[in-house]
Write a structure and sequence with these properties.
The protein has 266 residues and is an alpha+beta fold. It is built from 13 helices and five strands. The chain has a five-stranded antiparallel sheet with strand order 2-1-5-4-3. Strand 1 and strand 2 form a beta hairpin.
Length: 266
């Protein structure tokens, strides 16, 4: 993981804006982002040590060093946790549960007006209710990442496909560092790398994201376009599974379209 830590630091250094980091620059500056010596000075560490970090030759940086680098590079909370995962000498053990609990499946069945899914850290769909099948038009039945990045139908389902693809890759990048010893996750990343140019490009950018809530647009051949609010609930049993629900704004055209899909699903 030392090399991946160095690559992540390099990507964030090159993406940093000197002015936002308090670095004065001249009109002839051609270097993107910050220089290594600038990061080291701002973080209060030696240039030699920072170079070793980027080259993957320095092991187990202290929490104080990680805090200083996070402040210098203006990392958000998700990126900061990702930095900790990359620097950890002992990656988190991947969850062993591969199925949704029967009680969760019963809960989904009761949500007759709310599309709902249970997914794991790999974005495998472990359970879903009939309304979610209507919303995704039956395509995303195995793995949401494969559906988004490998199935052409996803571009019809998601009007904002590029945003969804970027968020999907960002989530996978995050969990790939946290569960670095998960062979099934590594196989998924390898498959997507081989088969999707979009994935390769986004993965190389080392962007990370964790979307706990937000809006997502769907396009349905009969119900039309729906704008739905999603909520992403991490289940409390530490299985790595999450409950994802979609709701429409009351009184909106999307609510009427969702009611139509619920009628069909029933």
């Amino acid at each position: 993981m030392d090399r991946e830590l160095g690559r992540f630091l390099k990507s964030r250094r090159e993406a940093a804006t000197p002015a936002e980091c308090g670095v004065l620059t001249g009109p002839r500056r051609r270097v993107p982002g910050l220089r290594r010596e600038e990061v080291a000075q701002l973080a209060g560490i030696s240039v030699e040590y920072y170079v070793r970090l980027e080259q993957g030759r320095a092991r187990a940086p202290s929490p104080e060093v990680l805090d200083a680098l996070a402040r210098t590079l203006r990392l958000d909370d998700v990126e900061r946790r990702h930095l900790d995962d990359l620097a950890s000498a002992r990656p988190t053990r991947p969850p062993s549960a591969r199925r949704a609990r029967p009680e969760l499946a019963q809960l989904l069945a009761k949500l007759d007006r709310v599309p709902a899914l249970v997914v794991d850290h790999r974005l495998d769909v472990l359970a879903g209710n009939p309304l979610s099948a209507q919303l995704f038009r039956g395509f995303a039945t195995a793995n949401l990442a494969r559906f988004c990045l490998l199935d052409p139908a996803s571009r019809e389902v998601f009007p904002d496909w590029h945003d969804v693809a970027r968020a999907t890759v960002g989530q996978l990048r995050l969990v790939a560092a946290r569960y670095a010893t998960d062979p099934a996750l590594a196989a998924l990343v390898g498959e997507l790398t081989l088969r999707s140019e979009t994935f390769r490009t986004l993965w190389a950018g080392r962007f990370v994201q964790q979307r706990t809530h937000g809006r997502k647009r769907f396009r349905h051949p009969v119900a039309g376009e729906l704008t739905l609010q999603f909520e992403n609930f991490e289940l409390p049993d530490s299985s790595g599974q999450r409950l994802v629900t979609f709701t429409a704004e009351p009184g909106s055209p999307s609510e009427s379209a969702l009611d139509l899909l619920a009628h069909w699903a029933a």
